[in-house]
Specification:
With 134 residues, this protein is of the alpha+beta class. It is built from three helices and five strands, in the order βααββββα. A five-stranded antiparallel sheet has the order 1-3-4-5-2. β3 and β4 form a beta hairpin. The longest helix is centred in the first third of the chain and has 16 residues.
Length: 134
Amino acid sequence: MMSTLIKVYYEDTDASSRVYYANYLKYLERGRSDFLYKLGFDHKKLLDKFKFYFVVKSCLIEYIKPAQFEDTLEVKTEIVDISKAKIQFNQFIYREKILLIDSKITIVSVNIDGKIFKMPNEMLEILKKQLSNN
């Protein structure tokens, strides 16, 4: 499991100073991107070198408690399943040790024409080592 810290800014909140619900999607995206960056995978390089990118196929979010303006959040990201063209993540957002968000996100790899694309073997091998049951 990998972690990413996020600061809640005023622009992220609604009139009650709570994080607007859709902004959690951005935080989860940052967590997944950071996860890939820490493993050496840059989205631009993947597109330039291999001609593919990732898109979200499904997203299930359980909102447990709200985050507030100026909170520091920790996004924890883990891979729970992987295939040649799909990665399933569990992601959690915490404030200190309090669970705020529990999510399940599935992404798929697609080529520049939007067709399902098999990830390169060297990438798959590195990602498989990150499976949460290892």
